Amino acid sequence: MSRRAVVVGAGLAGMLAAAVLADAGVAEVVVLDRDELPDGPRQRRGLPQGRHAHLLMPGGLAAMEEIVPGASLGKRLLAAGAHEVSLSSGTLARSPEGWLRRWRRAGPVMLTCTRALVDWTVRAAVLEQTAVEVRRTAVVGLTGSAGRVRGVRVSGPGGEEDLDADLVVDASGRGTRIIPWLDGLGLSGVRTRTVDSGLVNASRLYRVPAGAERFPLTVVHADPYVSRPGRSAMVMPVEGDRWLVSCGGTRGGEPPADPEGFLRYTLGLPDPIVGRLISGAEPLTDVHLSRSTSNVRHYLDKVPDWPEGLVVLGDALGTFNPAYGQGMSVAAFGARVLGRELDRADGLDAPGLARRVLRGAARPVDAAWA
């Protein structure tokens, strides 16, 4: 397999897609992102939910390690300070029915750390092990026709120019422009479904108090059975001896952005445990608020005549409310589908390749959506 593939977006979905393209023998894999990517685990503009709690589930990590074999991503994350949390015994969770039982057996484990650490670790591993090239530029459209995408149009200091590609992967995330890009090729009528609970997230980092280093991940769930706005909070251990504290509230129960109001919000939940944990902890950041939490499903896999040469993965295909903890895993599953279809294909221009990838990537999206 040879020639050029272009990936739009250098986030998790984009870098995993780039890894499978390089592994499939594509001669030139170019990742395009409008952000200046940090050289460490730091927040960037292109990760709008990056400051809030993320959970890397065991299935998602397994898919990532299959995509980037030999990188030992799990070990890298743990060495950088991520935490292993047992799904059956490692959490202290209060539901509307009371405190959930913690089982003696550890069972499957998830990893908890900042989203910035996950993205940086994956990006560094892919760049170490492949010849993938990352360029800073803004993609403003697709080139080609309704039958075949031939590349992307980028905007730079000298104006707009075209970058040809045999395969384009849109992994640009929640802010994807795929619908207007398709309109520009003459493809319209894509069905999109949005489910917006009005959730607002507010998060803040704290130093873990002395003696609380082994305190489990703690969450107070919202109560869906009462006719009041949902309100919840989580204390999640992350790298650097820190707690990432994330609050979430639906319309009428939104968490505030001021520090005093943030603390009052946690103390006013059905159980005040989160507020009590952080009341004596040292805050390390301001409170960061996000209102971009809607679930959005673009039914691109249902388009009757999908163009050759174009694949859409990750949040660009289906975006989830961050409260569900599914986004990173679904992105990894989609990239794995791309890799498996490339193994079966004769080349990037194999007839039907893009449609098969899109339909395969839609399956884990639909499973999480349901």
From TrEMBL:
SUPFAM superfamilies: FAD/NAD(P)-binding domain
Nucleotide-binding recorded as keyword: no
Alphabetic keyword roster: Signal
Segments forming domain FAD-binding: 5-342
Signal peptide limits: 1-22
Keyword Lyase: no
MF GO annotations: FAD binding
InterPro entries in UniProt: FAD-bd, FAD/NAD-bd_sf
Protein name: NAD(P)-binding protein
Organism: Streptomyces rubrogriseus
